[in-house]
């Protein structure tokens, strides 16, 4: 009787140990998703967030980590050895420089969309601005633009100002932003009298900003968006799959839904 009791106790302890150990065995056998880092221009935030969700849904073994910023800053991060797998810029310059330096896998490069520049004012603004030329008037004190040293949108804005021969009248009014999203925020909050941003960015804040006009055709360098796999990535296969998804019919539809133009419509 005593031995039978001891046997039951021992059996219970063994069973309890097995039950406790089973989850650990399951975890050991679980396969963690392979993570890739995608560094993309700030203006792509909404579109790439949606693209990443759809991509992960169709590729459950891959996790996408998004890193947004000014293309010039992202370029510097890649040069500094940041573990970036995919780079998507809002200008050819940064991509082409990295390509020339041997930091981009050239065969993966693709231009997938384009954009336009618009002049915006705060929705609650009482300053009447109806054209880019109106920015030269004394009533306009501050104009938000991207910092042209690191932000392609800032260079495009400079192109427009030079094309219209108003840059010299505006240079002391310009308020440089770290990226185009910040220029939009400055304008939306009424911290400036006007801003020059991408058409896609302005469309995300219709209650906060009003689009005055679009930059004239040919007034700035074409706003093309290239994407490519970064050379040296340890996740080349999933990185290539992500690039392929961006330029696929599903990816391009998401971009179009977010206001980006197909290249044929530039």
Short précis:
The chain is built from ten helices and ten strands. The protein has 266 residues and is an alpha/beta fold.
What can you tell me about this protein's structure?
This protein is α/β, with parallel strands linked by helices and 266 residues long. Helix 2 runs antiparallel to helix 10. The protein has a five-stranded mixed beta sheet with strand order 2-1-3-10-4. Strands 7-6-8-5-9 form a five-stranded mixed beta sheet, with helices on both faces. Strand 1, helix 2 and strand 2 (62-69) form a beta-alpha-beta unit. It is built from ten helices and ten strands. The chain starts with a helix and ends in a 9-residue tail after the last helix.
Label this structure with key terms.
about 270 residues; about 40% helix; alpha/beta; 10 helices; elongated; five-stranded mixed beta sheet
Detail the topology: elements first, then pairings.
Layout (H helix, E strand, L loop, with lengths): L1 H28 L4 E8 L3 H14 L3 E8 L1 H9 L6 E3 L3 H9 L9 E5 L2 E6 L20 E4 L5 H12 L3 H4 L3 E4 L2 H9 L5 E5 H4 L6 E6 L9 E6 L6 H11 L2 H9 L9
Parallel strand pairs: 1-2, 1-3, 6-7, 6-8
Antiparallel strand pairs: 3-10, 4-10, 5-8, 5-9
